[in-house]
Every structure is written in structure tokens, then in C-alpha cells.
Amino acid sequence: MRHFFSIIGGMGTEATESYIHLLNQRTPASNDQEYLNYILVNHATVPDRTNYILDNTKPNPLIPLKEDIKQQSQLNPDFFVIPCNTAHFFFDELQSATNVPILHMPKEAVSEISNVYPNAKRIGLIATKGTIFDGIYDTEVQNAGYKIVKPTEHIQEETMDLIYKYVKEQNKVNKELYHHILDEMKNEMDCDVIILGCTELSVAEERASDHNYPVIDAQSVLVDRSIELALKNREKDIE
Fold first, then answer.
1. For 127-181, what is each residue's pLDDT tens digit?
2. Residues 6 or more apart from 182 whose CB is under 8 A from it?
3. Has 191 been annotated as catalytic?
4. Of 78, 113, 222, 228, which sits 20 to 30 A from 100 (CA to CA)?
């Protein structure tokens, strides 16, 4: 297979399924052959990223993730996609393990802000405690000239409930809770834009998008960038 990309998924599986669904849905295709070539590694047993980031005595997700990258690199994909925001805590180590470029999910998400919300200044972030704690979005947001706004402890606990108790454990979206969190970030925290910095939140957005809150869905942006890069690489065969 020529000109394919590898997806390191399973963190969690429902979130990866959401990524794949959007990827196929948005690909401009009118027949089977016009869809994209990709390999999905749904590595569901990768240890919880947040648990390790908050407590380094917990099982280390970097070990199996690096193995996945090395194994897939032997197949020579054009690029890698990791549809898990928190896993980007390990981005530098993973990129150093391969010559194949890895799309940087937080960087791509932040780059999209100026396209959609050109007047934004205060950028809110809702995500797992691991992503909030490790600051993987902080540098990207600040380097882009914005002020990052993190949730209060109360909003963070609500967000963790939405991610873990509903999406991860039950494969359900608590629509009222999701919209309530967005409302708090918009009106209480005075955010111009709210980044959905967890793929389980992307699942919530996919299933409960009937709102008017200004969000940047990191997974949605990653889908678009994946399609753009895959089509660009495929054109090389035509040329």
C-alpha cells in the first residue's frame, strides 16, 4: 500500500472511533477508491495517560506508545496521527523514535483559532487533569499571542466526570453537563474561545453540538489536517 498514514489510537476507543467516523465522513470521495489509505492501531491497553502524568509510579504509557511508533515506522507511513491530547505529553520522545512526522494535535488546534475566531484573546481549555497539569497547550496558546484560561477546580471536576463517568465508562454524553461546562467557561471565566482538549470531549461535541458556544475541537481540527496531508501525499502518485 502506497501513501498511507498510521493512527495510534485506542485512547480511548470510542474517541478513536469518533475520529475515524469524521475522517471518513469528511473525505471527498464518491467511490471506494477515493477514500484514504490508513492503518489503525487501536491500542486500548495503553495505560491511562493522566494517571501517569499525575503520579509517575503508575504504569508508563510511553513504553507501549513508543513500541507502536517503532513497529509502524517499519511500514513507512507518510505520517502519524495520535488522536489523544494527553498522549502529546510524550510527543518529543515519540517523534525522536521515528523519522516519520507526527502531527501535533495541540499545535494544530491552536493554529485554527485565528481562522475561526480572529478577534479572540482569552483562550479557555477544558481537558483531563493530565493535560491541564502538564501544560501541553500552554506554550502553544501563549506563543500564538493569546492568554490561556484554565478551569477552576469545580469546573475541572465536572469535566473529569463528563470524560470518565459518562463517555469512557458508559459511552454516553451528559448533554446538560457538557453545555453547563461550556457556559461556565464562557460566562464565568470570560473565555472568547474554548478548546476541547480531550478526545472524549470531542465525542461530546459530536453528539451534543446543538449549542452556540465558541469552541475549537482539537480532534475535529486533527481530522481536517489528516485529510489535507493525506491528499497532498496521494497527489505525488498522480504527478
1. 999 999 999 999 999 999 999 999 999 999 999 999 999 999 999 999 999 999 9
2. 194, 211, 213, 215
3. no
4. 113
